[in-house]
Every structure is written in structure tokens, then in C-alpha cells.
From TrEMBL:
<dbReference type="Pfam" id="PF07714">
    <property type="entry name" value="PK_Tyr_Ser-Thr"/>
</dbReference>
<keyword id="KW-1133">Transmembrane helix</keyword>
<keyword id="KW-0418">Kinase</keyword>
<dbReference type="GO" id="GO:0004714">
    <property type="term" value="F:transmembrane receptor protein tyrosine kinase activity"/>
</dbReference>
<keyword id="KW-0675">Receptor</keyword>
<dbReference type="GO" id="GO:0043235">
    <property type="term" value="C:receptor complex"/>
</dbReference>
<keyword id="KW-0829">Tyrosine-protein kinase</keyword>
<dbReference type="InterPro" id="IPR008266">
    <property type="entry name" value="Tyr_kinase_AS"/>
</dbReference>
<dbReference type="InterPro" id="IPR001245">
    <property type="entry name" value="Ser-Thr/Tyr_kinase_cat_dom"/>
</dbReference>
<protein>
    <submittedName>
        <fullName>Tyrosine-protein kinase receptor Tie-1-like</fullName>
    </submittedName>
</protein>
<keyword id="KW-0808">Transferase</keyword>
<dbReference type="GO" id="GO:0005524">
    <property type="term" value="F:ATP binding"/>
</dbReference>
<keyword id="KW-0472">Membrane</keyword>
<feature type="domain" description="Protein kinase">
    <location>
        <begin position="1"/>
        <end position="184"/>
    </location>
</feature>
<keyword id="KW-0067">ATP-binding</keyword>
<dbReference type="GO" id="GO:0007169">
    <property type="term" value="P:cell surface receptor protein tyrosine kinase signaling pathway"/>
</dbReference>
<keyword id="KW-0812">Transmembrane</keyword>
């Protein structure tokens, strides 16, 4: 595996981004890259299973590299795979249906991606910090979700909420997320492809 000089995204957000003023558009360049990587995995019928900011590495020129494929599976068609309860599970990034014990599929990765967007826009905060993991299912089942981050636009928060839809089939695909994120970034006065070529 290639060396990632800036470490993982969670620590990078905490240690680097908090020392400078970052706009939503600058932060969303990270989200676009991760969505593109997940779209590629989705197209190859690969489910990651543990998508979180801590499992994204920050390479040269601040290029995001999705890592830690320990939970990943190749699946045929639209099938998912069962969660092994003996594994240490990423509870705070798991979808509501996987917390119920249902199979993990690509729509579960979409839920996790919504949490990653929230991590990016809170500069690395811990999701559901004041909710015990044992109470998380009940918290979500009552319709609660992570709150809108201060750096987050209403439009971006709507996208997060779509990722956290309690009905898996009503969540966006990664292809749709790439399209919408790129549109939002470009609509804020920047060029996402040009931004990816620049350092921050």
C-alpha cells in the first residue's frame, strides 16, 4: 500500500483543517473524491462495510484513498451479506437496518457515507457523541438523526438525510451522490475538477 503522508481523514480534519478557515466547498472536495471511489466499488459489486473518516487516507495533493477493506465483500446482483456479530462493529456508522441484524448491502454503505459527510463538515467530530451505542437503534428508530453541522448548507444536509432514509431503496446511489455533489460544488462558484488538482 502506498504511503499516505497526511494520515487518515479523521485526524487530518482535526489537526489540519481546524487550524485554518475551510469553506463547505473546500471540504466537499473530500466528499466528492470519496463518493467517486465508492461509486467505483459499487460498480464492481464490492461492498465496503466499514466506511468512516478514519478509514480514508489522505495522500499527496490531498487525494482521498479509501482504505481498510477488512469487512468488504463481493456480492452478486443485489444480494447483501450477513453481519458477523462476533466482529467489532462500527455501530455509529451502521444503517438502521443493519443494527436490526439485516444483511449489509450497498445502500448501507450509502448510509455510512452520509455519516462521513457529517464528519467532514464537523471537522472530525464523533457522531452521536451523547448517545450510547446500546441506545443508538432506538434513537434512530424514533426518527432522530445527526444534527446539521454549522458549516453545512441546507442543501447538503438534505443530501445527508437522504443517505439516512430508513427505507434503503429510497437512498441515493453513489452515482447519484457523485452527480449531485459535483453540481453543488460547481454551483458554489468553483470547478470541482480544477479543485482536485490544487493543494489546500
Amino acid at each position: 500500500m502506498e504511503y499516505a503522508p497526511h494520515g487518515n481523514l479523521k485526524d487530518f480534519l482535526k489537526q489540519i483543517c481546524r487550524d485554518s478557515i475551510a469553506t463547505e466547498q473546500e471540504l466537499m472536495v473530500f466528499g466528492v473524491q470519496i463518493a467517486r471511489g465508492m461509486h467505483f466499488l459499487e460498480s464492481k459489486k464490492c461492498i465496503h462495510g466499514d466506511l468512516a473518516a478514519r478509514n480514508v487516507l489522505v495522500g499527496d495533493n490531498f487525494i482521498m484513498k479509501i482504505a481498510d477493506f477488512g469487512f468488504s465483500r463481493y456480492v452478486k446482483g443485489t444480494n447483501g451479506f450477513p453481519i458477523n456479530p462476533n466482529n467489532k462493529l462500527p455501530i455509529r456508522w451502521m444503517s438502521i437496518e443493519t443494527l436490526e441484524g439485516k444483511d449489509y448491502d450497498s445502500s448501507c454503505d450509502v448510509w455510512s457515507f452520509g455519516v462521513v459527510l457529517w464528519e467532514i463538515l464537523t471537522l472530525g467530530e464523533e457522531p452521536y457523541l451523547h448517545t450510547a451505542t446500546t441506545n443508538l437503534y432506538n434513537f434512530l428508530n424514533m426518527g432522530n438523526r445527526l444534527e446539521k453541522p454549522p458549516l453545512c448548507s441546507n442543501e447538503m444536509y438534505v443530501m445527508m438525510r437522504q443517505c439516512w432514509n430508513s427505507v434503503p431503496k429510497q437512498r441515493p446511489t453513489f452515482g447519484e451522490l457523485v452527480r449531485d455533489l459535483e453540481y453543488m460544488c460547481n454551483n458554489q462558484g468553483g470547478n470541482i475538477n480544477a479543485a482536485l488538482q490544487n493543494e489546500y
